[in-house]
User: What shape does this take?
Amino acid sequence: MCHGSERFGALDVYRDTPGALSPADMEAAQTLADVVAALLLNAQARETALAVSDRFHYNAMHDPLTGLPNRLLLQERLESAATRAQRSHTYTAVLFLDLDRFKQVNDGYGHQVGDQLLCAVAHRLTTLVLRRSDTLCRFSGDEFVFLCEELSSVNDVSTLVRRIDEAFVEPYDLDGIEIIVGASVGRAYVGPGEAITPDLLRRADLDMYRAKRSDPVVRGPGSTAEVVQVGRSGSNLDDQQLEDDLRCALDDGHLDVAYQPIVRCSDGRITGVEALLRWTHPHRGTVPPIVVIAIAERSDLINELGAWVLERACEDHARWTKQHDSLPSLDLAVNVSVRQLMMPDFASVVSSVLGRTRVDSRSLILELTESITMEHGAQTTQLLSGLTELGVRLALDDFGTGFSALNHLGRLPIDIVKIDRSFISELDRPAGRIVVASVTALAQDLGIAVIAEGVETERQRVECIGAGCDYTQGYLHGRPTTAERISELLAG
Ligand code: C2E
Ligand code: CA
Ligand code: CA
Assistant: This one.
């Protein structure tokens, strides 16, 4: 057994499961039982000692309150899953579930009722585990984790989330006290042949927090309601519903792309535009693109959605070029999500869209986030090179917000860095100016152009020019707008 091994060391950041033995305690107990077994002479006594040893092992790996596997056992199962996944053609998913307002139950009714509730929840969740290969674990306090291996499709994950949601509809009857409790679920998965890394669990955890946080956002106009989480949270059903609606919107052409101008500092001309996804939901109103992308990323929709944005943007670009044939070429920046980039055929998707729309590959800029460079190491360089061979340029988006990968700039075939808005908004302070000027100088030394994002005021624009930035983008020059409006701006 490899407790606290480096591979899954990330688990150590989490709180201990109440009542579970620490790895050190467990090892000591195991050794003690082994020594006792070795010393005992008669066979029956040895059998008893071995049973004691098994018991120690079982106790160390299970939560004493609910009897579910604890996080140590989860750690072990994740490690075995990681070994198997590399040879497998299936999906592995982790679902992170957190009870809503459990503390209120504990504080209001006392720990005994709180414990009863945890046992009842554990019991209900256990009924959802259909396959022997799945693990349901009490991770800590009011957190539970499902590890599901060998899934044939990501739809299986959505089905499980829906069933979890349904499982929280009925109230719990705890010795005459009726309690309705909700839960928020986060999920993360890896696809066929992808490596399982310690990141998987953390991603599911982050997704769970995102699900809690994003709930009011996706409710749209007409509802400013706070997340009402006494009772079922509803967020997971919302997510599933949104996923279905997004699928329909893609099929029925109800999505749109807006464009924001990018302006060259040296002459103030619009030299490019960034394509930004827009979705107006028939009942919920505008759904922020960041939410749409998150939903698409954890279903199988992201590739279709990404390809759709790319194709639409290239079609609009081709139209602008035709309408304004006397104008110099216009750059077209399109955002690419991590999962899209990781698709083995992504470069050929880009290539065929360029071919179909007859857009010059030198006009296209693919915007990638910093996490791409961090998460996928050597594999990334190869993937990115496959794209630059097509003639497209690559931009590192939101620079400075993720892993501040200054050292990655020279290593990767990046052509453009987009300094995040959070730095531009600090330009009125000396420290902010120093940061922007230093990043700009370093990038330019490496032959990388710099775009300052989120420029809202004339003063910021002047500071960006002073810091040596090549381009500016932001509300000062224009909010994201329609393809038609961009055409008018180009004519003007
Ligand atoms: P991003 O790539 O950093 O895009 C810039 C975002 O900043 C846009 O938000 C834009 O409207 C906003 N913005 C631009 N100038 C200003 C400014 O001066 N002030 C302020 N406060 N905001 C400004 P939007 O359209 O809501 O998009 C949010 C994010 O959603 C994008 O951030 C991008 O990460 C993602 N996204 C949008 N469309 C796509 C897409 O087609 N594919 C992918 N993978 N992601 C997309
Ligand atoms: Ca972007
Ligand atoms: Ca950005």
Remarks:
- DSSP finds 18 helices and 15 strands in the chain.
- The chain has a mean pLDDT of 80.
- The pocket of calcium ion (ligand 2) is lined by residues 274, 335, 367, 397 (CB under 6 Å).
- The longest strand covers residues 270-281.
